[in-house]
Design brief:
Blueprint: E1 4-11, H1 17-25, E2 34-40, H2 46-54, E3 59-64, H3 73-83, E4 90-94, H4 101-107, E5 113-123, H5 127-131, H6 137-145, E6 149-153, E7 169-171, H7 177-183, E8 212-219, H8 226-234, E9 240-249, E10 252-259, E11 262-267, E12 279-286
Parallel strand pairs: 1-4, 1-5, 2-3, 2-4, 5-6, 6-7
Antiparallel strand pairs: 8-12, 9-10, 9-12, 10-11
């Protein structure tokens, strides 16, 4: 049996992974029998909901409340087992925004599967500041270093952005982006006699961050005004890296997306399917306790 290829879509929180996967799912050249695995770090898998709303007939499996590269690896193995006998042609795996691509790639060396490519999305607006953050910068830089192919998003908001590393890269504005991504195969992941046997490549033991990440969920009970929502978001600490969800305002339902300090609030059309919950998911990093003196 030929191993089933897995395309990994990674990148830091808010880099545009879900937006790109929706673009993939609506492209005519995507293999018809493609399944999507969506790993969301939060308790509620908002990314899965956004993808499912664009592909209601597709095979979509959510992996929530943890990261597949460390805390919920068994969930990924179970998902592969669930997909094994479905006569699929291709799997797209969206990682959480705090995942290391190399660790996810290793998890995809599962019997009957192999990691065909590892695509990492990079936000042209926020990447530089994130990469220089004392607590999460190591992770952001590692994600770029471990990519097979990089897609740079939001170029129009920062056209001068350049990565300080030589890697194959594409712009999210490329009209032929999906075709190029579907044709891409990481040079280190070509199929060989051992593909899909369960053997994992040699990995570098990277201690990528001084910070750990946490997620909490606010469940909305009372309708808010837009000013009340703005105040709620403005009061968050700098450690909050990502906010997403749906909120009921006086003017209607809005979808909220905040990446670092960059906020987007979009009114949901009245005819849309109601969201699965009202509230917000916050993903933050925790600063480690300061050590006194040298050890």
């Amino acid at each position: 049996m030929t191993p089933l290829p897995v395309t990994i879509i990674g990148g830091y929180l808010g880099a545009g992974k879900t937006t790109f996967i929706n673009r993939l799912l609506n492209h005519r050249e995507l293999p018809a029998r493609t399944a999507v695995l969506v790993n969301d770090f939060g308790e509620i898998n908002i990314d899965e909901t956004l993808i499912r709303s664009r592909s209601p007939e597709g095979t979509i499996i959510g992996l929530s409340n943890g990261c597949i590269c460390c805390s919920i690896t068994d969930d990924l193995s179970a998902a592969f087992e669930q997909l094994r006998d479905r006569s699929l042609k291709h799997i797209i795996l969206e990682t959480s925004g705090v995942a290391e691509p190399e660790k996810v790639r290793a998890q995809c060396h599962y019997p009957g599967f192999y990691p065909r490519s590892c695509i990492v999305m990079v936000d042209a607006v926020t990447h530089s500041s994130t990469a220089h953050n004392k607590y999460v910068g190591d992770l952001a830089r590692a994600q770029v270093q471990q990519a097979g192919l990089i897609i740079i998003t939001k170029n129009g908001l920062n056209p001068q952005f350049r990565l300080p590393i030589l890697k194959p890269s594409l712009s999210a504005d490329d009209k032929n982006l999906v075709r190029k991504v579907l044709a891409w195969q990481d040079s280190s992941n070509a199929i060989n006699a051992d593909a899909g046997s369960g053997d994992s490549p040699i990995m570098t033991n990277l201690h990528h961050s001084l910070a750990s990440f946490t997620s909490r969920t606010w469940h909305q009970t009372d309708r808010l005004t837009r000013n009340e929502l703005a105040h709620k978001l403005d009061s968050l600490s700098e450690q909050t890296q990502r906010v997403k969800g749906w909120v009921k305002l006086d003017e209607g339902i809005v979808q909220v997306s905040r990446v670092d300090k960059h906020l987007r609030v979009d009114l949901v059309p009245a005819e849309s399917i109601p969201p699965p919950f009202f509230g917000l998911v916050y993903i933050s990093y925790e600063k480690p306790l300061e050590q006194d003196g040298a050890h």
